[in-house]
Structures are given as structure tokens and as C-alpha cells.
Design a protein that fits this description.
By secondary structure, this protein is of the alpha/beta class. Helix 8 packs across helix 9. Strands 5-4-6-7-10-9 form a six-stranded mixed β-sheet, with helices on both faces. It has a domain of 200 residues: 3-Layer(aba) Sandwich (Rossmann fold), CATH 3.40.50.150. Helix 5 links the parallel strand 6 and strand 7.
Length: 286
């Protein structure tokens, strides 16, 4: 039974269901857990929304256009990051590859690409762009691919996966020795998270099942022989998340307020590295 004294917040699903979910603190791991968590066969219904922008290439509204512009810039930064790694065969697996823009850029930079994406519409877009078959999940890859990867990337994906420790074990099995796992996740200890509280858009319950701190990432992965070697900021996320959070809080986008909060969050994070989202590089040490 859950310890109700450890309940930190009650948050609403603003995207699909309008249902309420609690955030429970796991003190040992310094991590928040969404409760109750939808059963695996029920999760898909919480993604059935045109507002779920990572599953589309929409450029209709101003918000869509800004999102796509920032996405294109960050893809270039991601390519720089993986190109800086000492890889053996330039093999990469992108889990939760969305509409495939990052994988397409990897292919154009001579990486041998593999992808996994559960959403059928997004997966079909990726197949069209990359001209390769895309897996539905990593179980398929574990069954069908005897090769291990130099690099595995999960851009805002880990917070979505059920059975977290089992999943981390699978990631370990897919990495070659000295391979690098790159994970980007929201940081519930950022200034914008604390400021917006239950309205913080990056809680995104119940799609986000887990809410990580820097400490929790380190603790979770070191038990699997995955050593945290570098932490990097995702500065644009503070603005994007603040814009959505303002809308949840007041019913209006309030772009000027959102920009100010995003700027303030990044400014404060210069002192403590508590950015709205963080990229973690974890090396397979055994």
C-alpha cells in the first residue's frame, strides 16, 4: 500500500482525460511516481489527442511553427553530441523516435540507424523519411537483433515507460561494452517546476509515469553498470513548458509571462544545474 504521507501533489491531465493523479515521493530514489498508473493496455487512450505534438509534423499554428523551428535546431545539436562520442561502428538506436526527424538526420550523417516508436501514425512518418522498418517496441529489437548498439537515445521517453527497472535492464542488454545511453527527461527540481507546481506541464500525467531528479537518474542506472559521465541542459524546454504551464494555470498562453519564467528558470539553473530538462550520458562500464 502506498504511503499517503509521501503524496506531494495532485495533478490534472489537461491533454486528454481531465482526470486527477497523485505524485508520490520515493524518498530512497528521490523520484516522484504517478499514482494510480494506468494499466499497460489502457495507456494508449491517454495519447489520443491532436495536441500531442511529438506525434505530428504539424506547422499550422504559430505554436506549431515555433516548435518545429526549435526542433530542427535541437536536432543539429543532437547530431553534434553523438558525433563527439568515440563510437566503434556508428550504430544507433533511437527509442520513441516520433516522426523520425532525428533518425533521418543520423542516416544523413552516415549512422547505421534503428528505431522504435509505438504510435502508428508517427511510425509511418518515420518509415517514409528513413526508408527503413521501424520497430513498435524494444522487445521486438531484443528478439530480432543480435547486434548491440554504440549509442542508444531516448529523447523524453524514459518517463513514459512502464516497468522502469526491467526496461533499464533491457537497455543495458542492447548496449555494447563502452556504449553510451543518452537520456533526456524533465527535471522536477527545476525552478519552473517548483513555480508552477501542480500546473507544471512536464508532469503530463498520466503519460509521464516517473518524474526524475539528477540523483534518481544516477541511482537508478548505476545498479545496472551504467555510469553517469555527463549532464547537459535543454534550455529551450523551460520556455516551451512554461508556455503550456501558463495555459493550464490561467486558461491563457501568456507568452510574455512564460518567456520570463523560462528565462528565470535558465538563469537560476546556471548556479545549480537544475534546468527544466536535462540530458544524461551514461556509459556501459561492464
Amino acid at each position: 500500500m502506498e504511503n499517503k504521507k509521501n503524496k506531494i501533489l495532485t495533478c490534472q491531465d489537461y491533454t486528454v482525460s481531465n482526470e486527477n493523479f497523485d505524485l508520490i515521493l520515493d524518498e530512497k530514489l528521490d523520484m516522484l511516481i504517478t499514482s494510480p498508473q494506468p494499466k499497460k493496455d489502457e495507456l494508449s487512450k491517454y495519447y489520443e489527442s491532436e495536441a500531442y505534438i511529438s506525434h505530428t509534423d504539424a506547422s499550422i499554428s504559430l505554436f506549431d511553427k515555433v516548435y518545429q523551428t526549435v526542433k530542427n535546431y535541437t536536432i543539429k545539436q543532437k547530431i553534434k553530441l553523438i558525433s563527439s562520442l568515440n563510437t566503434e561502428n556508428k550504430t544507433i538506436l533511437d527509442i520513441g523516435c516520433g516522426t523520425g526527424d532525428f533518425l533521418e538526420a543520423c542516416k544523413n550523417n552516415d549512422w547505421k540507424i534503428t528505431g522504435a516508436e509505438p504510435n502508428e501514425g508517427a511510425r509511418n512518418l518515420t518509415i517514409k523519411k528513413t526508408e527503413i522498418g521501424i520497430h513498435t517496441n524494444i522487445e521486438e529489437i531484443l528478439e530480432n537483433n543480435s547486434n548491440k548498439f554504440d549509442v542508444i537515445t531516448m529523447w523524453h521517453v524514459l518517463e513514459h515507460v512502464p516497468n522502469l527497472q526491467e526496461y533499464i535492464s533491457s537497455l543495458k542488454n542492447l548496449l555494447r561494452p563502452n556504449g553510451v545511453l543518452i537520456i533526456a527527461v524533465p527535471n522536477y527540481k527545476s525552478y519552473d517546476a517548483v513555480y508552477y507546481g501542480k500546473f507544471w506541464a512536464a508532469y503530463d500525467v498520466p503519460r509521464h509515469l516517473w518524474h526524475f531528479s539528477q540523483k534518481s537518474i544516477n541511482l537508478l542506472f548505476k545498479d545496472f553498470g551504467l555510469e553517469l559521465v555527463k549532464t547537459l541542459p535543454m534550455k529551450f524546454d523551460a520556455y516551451y513548458v512554461s508556455l503550456l504551464s501558463e495555459k493550464y494555470k490561467s486558461g491563457k498562453s501568456n507568452p510574455f509571462k512564460a518567456f520570463y519564467r523560462g528565462f528565470l528558470s535558465n538563469l537560476k539553473a546556471k548556479q545549480n544545474m537544475e534546468y527544466s530538462s536535462l540530458i544524461y550520458l551514461l556509459k556501459n562500464t561492464n
